[in-house]
Amino acid sequence: MTATTDESVFAAENVFGKGELNTAFAQYFIGDSYLNNLVDDPECAVGVHNVTFSPGCRNNWHIHHATSGGGQVLICTAGSGWYQAEGEEPVSLEPGSVVFIRAGVKHWHGAKADSWFSHIALAVPGENTSNEWLEPVDDVAYAAL
């Protein structure tokens, strides 16, 4: 799939579905994101969600905390996006890209300015896990990507 702002073209490639507008976490995103819970069984120890970002949408910098284990895995499934860990260069994400984010790493992820983007987000089990939401990604830095 190539980058596209055409939602109907993107929807045909987004095999796990866009889901519902992500209103519960909207304050931590610039732009519209959508959330589709993929596993409803309470016995599943891993949170599994398809997160879809409209073009230009990205989440704030954030940290997945844990005293052991924890973190997040992103499996990119459609569109084109970005991942960046603090102090590192941004990484271009395309379908098939996989990112493991260790607990304690400050980072952000989201769509490229010219593309819808989806990834499956897996919450890695750990002890005393929590998310800390931080500042938005700077508009000037994002526009320079």
Automatic annotation (TrEMBL):
Residue ranges of domain Cupin type-2 in the record: 51-113
InterPro entries tied to this protein: Cupin_2, HNL-like_cupin, RmlC-like_jellyroll, RmlC_Cupin_sf
Coiled-coil intervals, chain numbering: none
A Pfam family matched in the record: Cupin_2
Protein name listed in UniProt: Cupin type-2 domain-containing protein
Organism in which the protein naturally occurs: Actinomyces glycerinitolerans
